[in-house]
Amino acid sequence: MPRRRIGFWYRFAAVICKPPLVVLLRRDWRGMEHIPAEGGFITAVNHNSHIDPFAYAHFQYNTGRVPRFLAKSGLFRKGFVGAAMRGTGQIPVYRESTDALSAFRAAIEAVDRGECVAFYPEGTLTRDPAGWPMTGKTGAARVALQTKCPVIPVAQWGCNELLPPYAKKPHLLPRKTHRVLAGPPVDLTRFYDREMTTDLLKEATEVIMAAITRQLEEIRGEKAPETPYDPRRERIEQRRRTQAQTQRGEQQAASPVQSAPSAQSAQSGQEEGLGK
Q1: Model confidence pLDDT, tens digit, residues 230-265
Q2: How far apart are CA 232 and CA 229, in angstroms?
């Protein structure tokens, strides 16, 4: 399958976005040889800054295989933004779909056409306190198992130092370095031609996330936590902590009322003793 031409809109976006990225960020990019020269494939990328989609797109643009990101379908409908999203070949995600696989039908079609589809498997900016990848969502695994295309794990670091997750102001100085390391395709063959159950998708996703994390460990020169940060588990734990605090507060509020009769009884006893 021949590669798709980059096209006017992507080149136009590059003209706008590349100059500020070059000014703001040094580049340490490795692993471009793992980006397939032909055919459809997926890149699975960690996400730790609001600006890393632009920096990562810059990296992959330079390989000649531009990424098609997934974005909410509403962004494609109106105005200049919609025209740019359609023109650059980004992938609409139909969140209103009740069928989890059909929600990614456009991504599957893009891979079948020979495109690169870039997934952020975490689904949002990492909430791990140290910036490590969290547990992933199953979308990338679904598309990969449906199409049997290569999945390239990509780790990046540095945009989060320029603009930390959920921060409002960038840290411009000193100038930061955007580090990217693309790895060899993730081996998912053992999951092929099997029923696409929740457990199967979860296991395949864990394999993909582990590969991304290994790439990031190499970039950072340190080990990631044994257990990835799980936002769902953290919400459950936070709910439990909140409930426990509420119960303790209720008990503390009730304790003076409960002890009042005892205090009154003690006072009555003292008065009776004095009267004898």
Answers
A1: 988 888 887 888 777 777 777 787 776 554 455 444
A2: 9
